[in-house]
Design brief:
By secondary structure, the chain is α/β, with parallel strands linked by helices. The chain has eleven helices and ten strands. The chain has a domain at 34-216 and 249-254: TIM Barrel (Alpha-Beta Barrel), CATH 3.20.20.100. It has helices at 2-22, 51-60, 75-87, 108-122, 139-154, 168-175, 196-204, 223-232, 236-245, 259-266, 275-282; strands spanning 27-31, 34-37, 39-41, 65-67, 96-101, 127-132, 158-164, 184-188, 208-212, 251-253. Helix 1 runs parallel beside helix 10 and helix 8 crosses helix 9 (236-245).
Length: 284
């Protein structure tokens, strides 16, 4: 009985700690009046897991950002989890929902129609952020899609719009006529795997650079990560994620239905890396 009781107490303490540290995490202003959580629940790497369960767990632990997409085929499950949370008293305005339209749609009309279809699947009149999942084959097509997303924002279907997997040349072409810059560019980014040129371009043009797959290609057993983790009494995964967030980049992480990993992700506000530690991680 005692081991079980101690386990339950540890779980409750972990949840309480996570919730308290969430307030220490920054929220990033991606557009006028639109703030995005630093840590968002991304698409689980384990396709066999329950999308509804992972989203419900995330929300119950204090997570408020959820990242989905038309191509993930999980929007019904996300809608169920969000709808249940709202029915239990959670304010919709406290939940930040990102979705992405299919990259195969490369006209203004199809982009706008895709946003409406996403909202229908999510059972919502509006989302917080819509992204173009991947660039099209030409700059002309990208501009057409971008025009559709801007129209969706103008219609109140999205509070902010952006892109995903765009590199600096794609962004330059999108902005060459002096048009509105994307609020966010979501790309793969992790310790040892980052596109510094595109990150610099985004920073120079006030485009929030968001990381997905924040642990991809990261050797969590690397002694450099381990030594930093031991100083802060955290896991190496937390160190790798904190390195991203501390650069002003929100993350879409994938703890699935693992409560321990979810709590670790939500506890990124419990410590801060020194400038020397940040430099060491950037050099990996």
């Amino acid at each position: 009985m005692w081991p079980l009781l101690l386990l339950l107490l540890a779980s409750v303490t972990g949840v309480s700690s996570a919730r308290s540290s969430i307030d220490s995490l920054p929220r990033f202003t991606i557009a006028p009046g639109v703030e995005m959580p630093a840590v968002n629940l991304g698409h689980p790497d384990d396709e066999g897991g329950s999308e509804t369960a992972s989203a419900a767990l995330w929300l119950s632990l204090g997570g408020r950002g959820i990242d989905t997409a038309y191509n993930y085929h999980n929007q019904d499950e996300v809608a169920t989890a969000v709808g249940t949370a709202i029915s239990k008293g959670m304010n919709r305005s406290s939940i930040f929902i990102t979705t992405k339209i299919s990259p195969s749609l490369c006209t203004k009309a199809s982009a706008l129609a895709a946003v409406k279809e996403d909202l229908k699947e999510l059972k919502l009149p509006q989302v917080d952020l819509v992204l173009h999942h991947f660039p099209c084959r030409s700059a002309t097509e990208n501009k057409a899609v971008w025009s559709g997303l801007l129209e969706a924002k103008k219609m109140g279907l999205a509070r902010a719009v952006g892109v995903s997997n765009y590199v600096s040349k794609d962004l330059k072409a999108l902005l060459e006529d002096g048009g509105e810059a994307p609020a966010v560019n979501q790309c793969s980014m992790s310790v040892g795997n980052h596109d510094d040129s595109t990150i610099s371009f985004c920073n120079a043009h006030s485009i929030t650079y968001e990381s997905y797959s924040p642990l991809r290609r990261v050797d969590l057993g690397d002694r450099r990560l381990s030594s930093i983790a031991s100083v802060h009494n955290v896991s190496t995964a937390q160190v790798a994620l904190r390195w991203i967030v501390q650069q002003g980049c929100p993350v879409a992480t994938s703890p699935g239905v693992n409560q321990e990993y979810s709590l670790e992700d939500l506890n990124l506000g419990s410590f801060k890396l020194s400038s020397a530690e940040m430099a060491a991680l950037s050099a990996i």
